[in-house]
Amino acid sequence: MREDRGRVLSSLMAKFRNFDQAEEALQEALASAFTHWTRNGLPSNPAAWLHTAASRKAIDRLRKARRDEGLSQDIGLLSQGDVASESHGVTDQRLSLIFTCCHPALEPKSSIALTLRTLGGLTTTEIANAFLDAETTLGQRLCRAKAKIAQAGIPFRVPEPQDWDERLNSVLKVIYLIFNEGYCASSGATSVRVDLCEEAIYLARMIETLRPDEPEVLGVLALMLFAHARYRARIAGAGVVPLEAQDHLLWDQGKLKEAEACLDRALTLGKTGPYQIQAAIMALHSQAAARDWGQILMLYDALITFDANPVIRLNRAVALAEAGFLELALQELTALEGALTMYQPYFAAKADLLRKAGHEAAAQTAYAQAIGLARNAADVAWLQRQKSAAT
Amino acid sequence: MFANLTLESYKTMQFALMISETHEGFEDRNNARAGEYWGGWMAYSRAIAESGIFAGGAGLELPSTATRVVFDGASKTVQDGPFPDARELLGGFFVIEVDSLDDAIAWAKRCPITKGGTVEVRPVLPPPPQAD
Fold first, then answer.
1. Which of residues 3-42 of B touch A (CB under 8 A)?
2. Interface mutation target, options A24, A151, A165, A170, chain B, most CBs of B under 10 Å
3. CATH number for the domain including B51?
């Protein structure tokens, strides 16, 4: 249903070029489908049925609006399209829809909400809950985003080849933000929100189906599958269980295999990118055998050529320490302190490295700072235990 | 209202490209790099004209030539200079007529800005309805 809804909505968007109209018409069509289908049984092609019904409702509304404004009834173009679509069924415009929702002219939070609303399977209430927004706030955010799309001239189409990489990157960024919000739930008692992780994976799969052989799409999909495969093991304790303490039997082997297959396919396409490198790092982390930190470090060195943001540098520093360069790693952490003063994992990593280097007092301070910045109860519990163990 | 929106979205739109430059950028108008600076903007203006999308615009004299009129309550004070303490200042603007924001962004990206700056892209209001 999620898939049909997205397909029908995207097709209506392509036709009417207006979010509100497309959504209202689909809503009405869904309401009448309920009565029709309980009375007459399910049509042979529910998506086509919905599309036709919604198109008719939208055209009726347009006619009425034009009549009310005293305008001519000339909407022949749209009506013709309607006849054509009845014979051809729905045209799948989900790719255009996601590129519109994730246009860089929209703020990321709006893109996230809009993408989940139009292409995902979450209701407005569920999206609001997931992002700890009041439902009215989210409603306003969606409203503003739709108004901006209409008024700022954001087109409803797949980007031109010269813009493709940049625009695809915005789409993947939005998808990965959704995943991360699920994976590191920003508050509450649980530290993973499976529904958001699965929405993000669904969206990446959708793009992969609509436009196969995009190495970075496969890369982000592999990256998320690797991470998601371990979620049961990750939440099996009182807090978040870190990788080195996880029970490998709880890893989802099916997802790990799929992730590896995606990554392998991406790498054969011969165009490396940051998501593929991160997925490759995850692949090395997902081996039950001892991890090859030398190789992980090399991948981080490659990743930094694409994106030298402080969080990636922090992860590289951890790899540096694990690969045997503890002093270098501590120097790098000192250099990063200014950029990551509010970042809990920075202090957690610093505490671990200080402890390994035998600086117990400094490690205690860093653990305390990490606990102060932790965003959910599970993280606090884990850090408390680490801190006690370090004395 | 949405009847209009629907049909108008098939038409072209006008966008203003408001070009702000840094102080270093403005310096290039009158130093050893002036030839390059003006050459870049001449070529850009020509490209816009030749594409048939030009709908208006002007380059502006240096920010130091600006005068501002400040409205505060009922008083209107005349002061020297552009907005104070701004890192970037308006250097000129174009109005172009294209299909979508994506096309306008593509043109904004072609601006020959080399010393930092910003191009704000904004749709132009449609003309007010004509009295019959």
1. 3, 5-7, 9-10, 13, 15
2. A151
3. 3.30.70.1060
Of A17, A62, A105, the CB nearest to B9: A17
Residue B21's beta-bridge partner residues?
B89, B117
CA-CA-CA-CA torsion sign (A257, A263, A267, A268)? positive
Strand B117-123: give its sheet, edge to edge: B54-59, B88-98, B13-22, B117-123
Number of structural domains, chain A? Answer: 1
Lowest mean pLDDT among A66-70, A360-364, B34-38, B53-57: A66-70
pLDDT tens for residues A167-209? 999 999 999 999 988 887 655 556 568 888 999 999 999 999 9
Contact A256, A264 (CB under 8 A): no
- Residue that the structure tokens 């496969």 belong to: A218
pLDDT band at B10 (very low <50, low <70, confident <90, very high): low
User: Taking the CA atoms of chain B, what radius of gyration do you get in angstroms?
Assistant: 18
Considering its fold, how many domains does chain B have in total?
Answer: 1
Q: Estimate the share of chain A in helix, then strand, then coil, as percent rounded to the nearest 5.
A: 75, 0, 25
pLDDT at A83 over 60: no
Rounded mean pLDDT, A106-113: 93
User: Closest Cα of chain A to B102: distance in Å?
Assistant: 7
Residue A27 counted as domain residue: yes
Q: B40-51 as b/e, with b when 16 or more CB fall inside 10 Å?
A: bbeebeeebeee
**What values do phi and psi take at A384, rounded to 5?**
-60, -45
**Cβ atoms A302, A277 nearer than 8 A:** yes
Is the Cβ of A17 closer than 8 Å to some Cβ of chain B? yes
Of A245-249, A271-275, A329-333, the poorest mean pLDDT is in A245-249
Task: Please give the residue range of the domain that contains residue A42.
Answer: 2-88
Residue B7 lies in a domain: no
For residue B20, tell me if it sits in a domain. yes
Domain holding B36, by residue range, is 13-123
From A184, A201, A206, A202, select the one nearest A193 (Cα to Cα). A184
- The predicted pLDDT at position A185 comes to 66
Residue B47 lies in a domain: yes
Do the chains contact at B100 and A62, CB–CB below 8 Å? no
C-alpha span between A373 and A383 (Å, rounded): 11
Gap from B50 CA to chain A (nearest CA, Å) = 21
Residue B1 lies in a domain: no
DSSP letter at A294 equals H
